[in-house]
Amino acid sequence: MAAILSRNSIATSGIQPSQRILVGTGESTWIWSAHGWDLTHPEDPTSSQSVNGVSLDCELVNVKIDPKKTALVIIDMQNIGLSMALNPPSAPPMYEAEEAILRHAIPAARKLGLQIIWLNWGLTEQDLSNLPPAEIRVFAFQANTNEVDYGLSNQRGDLDDPQNFLACGERPNLARLPGAELGEVLTDDEIRVDAGRAMMKGSWNTALHGPLAAAYEEGKKSARPDVWIDKNRNSGLWHDESALGQYLKREKIRTLLFSGINTDQCVGSTLQDAHARGYDTIMLKNACATDSPPYAKASYEFNCARSWGFLSSCKALAKAANVSY
Questions:
Q1: Where are the alpha helices (DSSP H) in 220-293?
Q2: Which of 34, 32, 30 is nearest to 21 (CA)?
Q3: Taking 60 as the threshold, does the pLDDT of residue 2 lie above it?
Q4: The model's pTM
Q5: How do residues 148-174 score in pLDDT, each as one tens digit?
Q6: What angle do CA 284, 289, 292 make, to 5 degrees?
Q7: In whole angstroms, what is the distance from residue 106 CA to residue 79 CA?
């Protein structure tokens, strides 16, 4: 078992070009060198023999990953958040992220042999009965304002004084209550379909949006078939027995590349929980988007550059796979 920090690998006379520093213990060990961080998790981290891996450019410092232990996680790219048939509170960056995933991330992941995981909202009746009020509020109530940030950026005076707090209030929008019937809608292709019950597993509204659905179907036939995993909270790793957590343990996947929507909500909460559970976490910044103000995404990118793992992009992944970008 490696030490938390291997002291015997630290030179007393400064950093040497060939120096390696082991950080972590057991299977979670990372190896630092002047070239960046080795995240391949070799059986014997103390061995001087290099494990075959793929170099991925990241902001600040680059990493090396083992494709067999790495997954591209695509989160919540579903009709309920992206199809104009349901009038979602979507924003142009969401469709730009969709394009980046389709054009660069998926082809690169397939060529490298990464596992592709489609992590999506998909509630069962039991999930619905156990959904906490905090989750229900987000979907079934809305603020009485059209301001994207509710007006927080326009506040004046002492912002800590309750007299200056926003007082727009909220109102119910029970048509979006999880489990509510959404009725018949006209799709982007001008086809009438039953949208099903909001956020429920197997319904049209929780299906993948547009060409992503075709990409998933194609991926099921690949050498390393795509997998679909349902979640019942913002985070897919919110408890010890989550479907995503069990799958990652079973398949011995250690490194996760994050993409999807929303950066600061479902993507971010899953990434943070993965980071806390010891997974290697890498955000592909142009594969993630949100309808929140720009500073919300910027905050996640800043923290992912160091505090929550690493920050990369779909184009960097394409470069690693030698795919044109």
A1: 243-251, 268-276
A2: 32
A3: no
A4: 0.94
A5: 999 999 999 999 999 999 999 999 999
A6: 140
A7: 19
